[in-house]
Sequence to fold (125 residues):
Amino acid sequence: MPTTDTGSGSAAQLARYAETELQLLNRTVADHGYAYAGDVYDVLGALAGIGHKLVQATEEAAAALVRMEALGVVGVSSEETATPREVVTIATRTLAHATVTAAQLHTRLNAAQTTIRNLTTETAQ
Fold:
């Protein structure tokens, strides 16, 4: 059950909600651990899904920057020595690398989940 309303808000606010939810997951696991191998399996599946969604998010961010630069609606601060086009070019190259990394994350988390699919948790006697 989500702890935040994700049905509305800006893209930036929704990204912050996602970050908060991952922090909650990390805290919960750190405080209580995993009770069953099936819980680990389920979490890995959900995290793999997040990795897949990060691919789309990074691609969309890059496309938005390119579109804004092409329309001439982005500028640079007075401290910046590069042009908006140069900044967007560097950012989109970096985002392309992030997209590849997100795809690898998705693949590796799926592989880890598949590897443990037949584990069972024995109860202590």
Notes: Residues 37-71 form the longest helix (35 residues). Helices lie at 11-32, 37-71, 84-115. The mean pLDDT is 92.
